[in-house]
Protein 1
Amino acid sequence: MAGPFQQFCLRVVTAPARRRFKAPARARAWTLASEDGTSLAAWELSPAGTPRGVVVLGHGYRDDRRQLLPFAQTLAGAGFTAVVFDFRAHGASAGERITIGHDEARDVRALLAWARTQGLPVGYLGFSMGAASYLLSGIEADVAVLDSPYDTLENAFAARLGLLGLGRWTPSVREASRALLDVDPATQRPVDRVSSLRSPTLVLFAPRDRWLPARVRERFRSQAAPSVEVTALASGGHSDHFDARWSERALGWFEARLGVLSPRQP
């Protein structure tokens, strides 16, 4: 059995990351219920004219919707409706714990289901936990950009415990995490999903990402379906690579693939 310190460390890793902040100009604030009823807070940014599609953006672990807001504004400027939201237990959303992808997959499914009701082509961009949650959700947008997804939940936990100085990932810690999350981390494997993706999907990794070593990137590349392009960025670490070149690459992926699709019936 995991000791008191190990259990404390797990509670730290899964503790909510609450924040409150004002909506930016020209953003519509609204809430949406996730699959289990958890209230999720979101901002919607609309283009000046008729939308070419709707893109949902999912942020990373212990961050919030502001992380991807600049790119959401870029998408709106390019003619897309963009929705940034707070995952459960993040930002202004409800929720009692962070599961780093398992329960957050429910949030992805809820947002994409809402997006489908708009009668437009649907895109998704996720970063880190937001990318892994998309893969764990079991559904797909018409076009996706997945930045820095982890390969397995066990490795994600192990990296956070180790790099934060909170201990090692041991069999007893694994059992404690399973009791805390109501799921076995060994069964949560986003990397296994990339072999069955059908929608055009761009997977990006930064070269100096301390959370995701080279072997993780190679696992995604070796298992990627024909519809998936796995690309290494030229520079940057885990969360400091959102520069103009990154924005141009991600926007180009959506414009070339999502912006040319025909509207669909709700």
Protein 2
Amino acid sequence: MTPLLLIEDTPSLQLVYESILQGAGYSVVSAGTARDGLGALRKHAPQVVLLDLVLPDRSGLDLMREMMEERPDTCVIVITANGSINRAVEAMRLGAHDFLLKPFNEQRFLNAVESALADAGRKQDAPPDPAGRGRAMFSVFTGNSPAMEAVFTRIRSVGRSMATVFITGESGTGKELCAQAIHDGSHRASGPFVPLNCGAIPTDLLESEVFGHLKGSFTGAIADKPGAAAVADGGTLFLDEICEMDMNLQTKLLRFLQTSTIQPVGATRPHKVDVRIICATNRDPMEEIRRGRFREDLYYRLHVVPIHLPPLRARGEDAIMIAEDALARFAAEEGHSFTAISDDVKALFRQLDWPGNVRELLNAVRHAVVLNEGPILTLDMLPPDLERTGRTRPADARCASAETSGPGGALDGLAGKTLAEIERLVIETAIDRHDGSVPQAARELNVSPSTLYRKREAWAKDRKNRA
């Protein structure tokens, strides 16, 4: 078995990492400098390299660039301290498979190695990819919060399959980027990725946009037009805002999923296409089903592998990482000299509720960069309404209404109900209070949105079985 290459200059850490890896059955070759590490890479040709970014004789990023040029199929896992997150982000841009922030636990360490070895094996088995489409499929994401680690793991797993993926999340959380990452990590990466926003196309044109039409099939059809499903043949069709789709078209989409055939408007015969479907919505699909706006059978056909993208306010320090990454990128685009974010701005970013999520954060940073020269991003450079519109409500304000109702009033109407009935009542009431928003209700109830989605799905199945 080809050994793993560990490049770590601290002897004590080198021993710890070696012990963990060898205890898990891996063979390990270690180096303490960039020079020795490059020599070991050339001698042993490892599939996976564990690289500390701080080395005594050379920058770890420079070493990684050279290693990737010499052996582009190598999977590199970079290791860095919390204060060097920007370098880890840059490493991911350069094509690193994953990164570990010190301190990390043993299981996280071994999981990263196992995933890298699996990916290296797929690279060896896969046909050549001259365009480099599959490289660094997570470069579109920035973050190392537990919530995003779970998303990354799910994307890696589902990328290898043909299963339909159903992405949920608030507006601005990056659902199309998630779909693109799934496509880039799949065996279809060399095929087309075709996004279609179901909410941005007039209802009377949506069928034509999805399935195509023939010349003369309706007024204004002056030429044959292939639909998105045909254009995506051999690749991935991403249907964004799927809950906006007209009910009649939902029936045709269900038939397409069952038969893999499309029939353009005006055509007399259907024909087969090879397309993987990924869809997304920022609505609660179970609520849309309950209101009769989305077909339940279509939902269960699409909802094979769910991925929920967490809101930015649930991602901890990711907001700072994203802002720092965006600051460097936007400053380079504008030719301005920004180098850092002030502590006051970081504190504000941690407090904001971010109703627009990552999109709102990126807009705020770009606003500051475009209108200022730098070098430090300060509070006065931010959009004037950012703090007013995005501040998180204090916890005591959220509890005020419950406290004023009195201890007895909170139990009115619950006598005689089972615990399961009370739980459902509380959840549905919270969702109604937030105008159908499951993520906002989940935040109020201090649970994961996926928990509420699972419960509502179970209730819908139970109702269906009783019917």
Protein 3
Amino acid sequence: MQPATITVAQLTQQLLDLGVAPGGVLLVHCSFSKVKPVEDGPMGLITALQTALGPDGTLVMPSMSDDDDRPFDPRHTPCLGMGIVADTFWRLPGVLRSDSPHAFAAQGPLAEVITAPHPVDVPHGLDSPVGRVYELDGQVLLLGVDHTANTTIHLAENLAGVRYRRQKYAFIIESGELRRVDYGEVDHCCANFRLVDDWLERENLQHRGIVGHAPARLARSRDIVRVVVERLRQDETIFLHPFGVDEECDEARASLLSSGGKVR
């Protein structure tokens, strides 16, 4: 049996009941396949998010490029890997999108601040959209996804000073010329980001509920960063699988060895 269609008004109330703060900054990661069916599809969910935040709130979504081998164009490059809601959002009138392969899109009074230029080689540091959401005391909303999709945890890794890196590259247009940027990114498979659920809930820092038909999690960016930094300073490799389990984690662990670091 097809689930009942959730109206925009119902979605808005679900978001407010969960704890979305009107007038605040809200960073959303979403799997719409878990949220639907809702009135007006992805646009209906975006409308509900905008309505819950109100005119003084700022809505933020990831808007990263799907293709590392082509230069990023904020006017045209899709972000289907971030989901249909994110790929719909950046195309809307009045939405700003940062000019980076690691782009985020935002709408609201603080959109220009959040989408200001940010470095390619440190995608999720303080000088990035997720870093700015953190400094603005924003909230992070996970709809139909868990913390494995939570980019703010990468910010915490950077702030904790973890030493592991994976080698990445991106193409950018600089002064009218195509340029390849090679860099080491704090990255791995991210499966162990699921640990953050327990860390937050031990301190009653995460709200859970249903939005549409999807499980939802809501927490302050600053709370996420604090609890993660605390754990990483106790064990730098807490998110990394042991050698031989996952190639991405293997690369991250190997980078510690190549730099002379100790691997637990």
